[in-house]
């Protein structure tokens, strides 16, 4: 089976049903472990991306948060959120069939005031106080204490 084509077919079906043009397939040992399509408009959940849905399903099936031994096929280069999730679940490989540069003209100026494919990824490289999304840092000692507690618990006090 052509797994990359399957991701394209999922995205095409999504568009035909009035959805967004994203599809993902996760494969392990030559078999489809999970599939996903972007359901953001249907669920009103901005994290309900094709990659995230497929990662969640695959991890549940495997009983782990890691996708070791898996290949992820996505129709397009993953957005920063999905890319972060992919780094977190550590698949062996990610294959995408359309670049940001190629898809950008079809996604720009649309559905999210912060989403411009050419600048979206660049926003993450900026210092937090220079991003388009307004952010404010309010330091609390208690917040750091939570991380100290976690470190003590996971490192045996070392």
Give the SSE layout.
Blueprint: H1 3-16, E1 23-28, E2 31-37, H2 40-43, H3 50-62, E3 70-74, H4 80-89, E4 93-96, H5 100-107, H6 117-125, H7 141-155
Parallel strand pairs: 3-4
Antiparallel strand pairs: 1-2, 1-3
Helix pairs in contact: 3-4
Give a nutshell description of this structure.
The protein has helices at residues 3-16, 40-43, 50-62, 80-89, 100-107, 117-125, 141-155, and strands at residues 23-28, 31-37, 70-74, 93-96.
Explain how this protein is built:
Helix 3 (50-62) packs parallel to helix 4. This protein is of the alpha+beta class. 46% of the residues lie in helices and 14% in strands. The chain has a 4-stranded mixed beta sheet with strand order 2-1-3-4, sandwiched between helices. The mean pLDDT is 89. It has 7 helices and 4 strands, in the order H-E-E-H-H-E-H-E-H-H-H. It has a single domain (3-156), classed as 3-Layer(aba) Sandwich (Cytidine Deaminase, domain 2), CATH 3.40.140. It starts with a helix and ends with a helix.
The rounded Rg comes to: 18 Å
Unreliable segments (pLDDT under 50, ≥5 consecutive)?
Answer: none
Contiguous helical run count: 7
CATH superfamily: Cytidine Deaminase, domain 2
User: Helix and strand string, N-terminal first?
Assistant: HEEHHEHEHHH
Helical residue percent band: 40-55%
- Beta-strand share of residues: 5-15%
Determine the CATH topology: Cytidine Deaminase, domain 2
Computed structural class: alpha+beta
| Structural shape | globular
């Amino acid at each position: 089976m052509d797994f990359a084509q399957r991701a394209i077919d999922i995205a095409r079906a999504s568009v035909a049903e009035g959805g967004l043009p994203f599809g993902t397939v996760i494969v392990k040992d030559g078999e489809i472990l999970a599939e996903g399509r972007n359901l953001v408009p249907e669920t009103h959940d901005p994290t309900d991306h094709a990659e995230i849905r497929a990662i969640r399903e695959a991890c549940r099936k495997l009983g782990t948060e890691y996708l070791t031994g898996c290949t992820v096929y996505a129709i397009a280069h993953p957005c920063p959120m999905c890319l972060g999730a992919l780094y977190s679940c550590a698949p062996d490989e990610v294959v995408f069939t359309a670049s940001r540069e190629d898809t950008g003209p079809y996604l720009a100026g649309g559905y999210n005031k912060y989403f411009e494919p050419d600048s979206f990824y660049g926003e993450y490289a900026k210092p937090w106080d220079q991003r388009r999304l307004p952010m404010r840092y309010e330091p609390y000692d208690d917040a750091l204490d939570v991380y100290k507690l976690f470190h003590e618990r996971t490192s045996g006090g070392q």
